[in-house]
């Protein structure tokens, strides 16, 4: 079974871009972030013992998809012909995909996140990310608030003002989902956010987290439903933090691809 067939069986689509959750026009950094985001959900280290074998298989398939799209020549062939070179170096069978992943992504600490948040909030990067999320989700504030990093419900008035200003200046279109959002939907979002904040604070207190504690403890403490949400957040945050640390400066905003 070839890679595209494996992707369809494991992820429900033979499209490598859909497997990574990115647009076909995605930049190399967006593809890298997409890989990181999905890999945190399927990484064998995060799987239950009875699910580790299946997680390992899906992780290997995902990593191969990334290997193709991260190689300029392989990606060009795939884009033009819709095929992949099964015998090429990117898909060589002897590669240790977990070690490959560890070389790409480093662990982060609570302090890393706190430092990143201080730099990110009210920055040009955050501004670009907010506009990108608004465009990608066509004004759906539920998804915008879930997508933009380091925000909670108390940030919503600030986020709204940024979007309203961008609409007024013609930088982004006026979507009905944003300008006509009902008060009921706003209140429901606020209630969900407040509940999640209470749960997060309770978990943090129970674990005694703080300072340089490894975030893995927090992830492992969550039940299966909450674990996916936490992994999604950490995937985005780690990708942004690592990219920022390596470049030591500004970078283009990450646009979430439509699936």
UniProtKB/TrEMBL annotation:
Keyword Ribonucleoprotein: no
Any coiled-coil regions, as ranges: 106-140, 183-210
Keywords, ordered alphabetically: Coiled coil, Phosphoprotein
Domain J: 15-82
One GO CC term, this protein: cytoplasm
Function text: Acts as a dual histone chaperone and heat shock co-chaperone. As a histone chaperone, forms a co-chaperone complex with MCM2 and histone H3-H4 heterodimers; and may thereby assist MCM2 in histone H3-H4 heterodimer recognition and facilitate the assembly of histones into nucleosomes. May also act as a histone co-chaperone together with TONSL. May recruit histone chaperones ASF1A, NASP and SPT2 to histone H3-H4 heterodimers. Also plays a role as co-chaperone of the HSP70 family of molecular chaperone proteins, such as HSPA1A, HSPA1B and HSPA8.
Record protein name field: DnaJ homolog subfamily C member 9
Organism: Eolophus roseicapilla (Galah cockatoo)
The gene coding this protein: Dnajc9
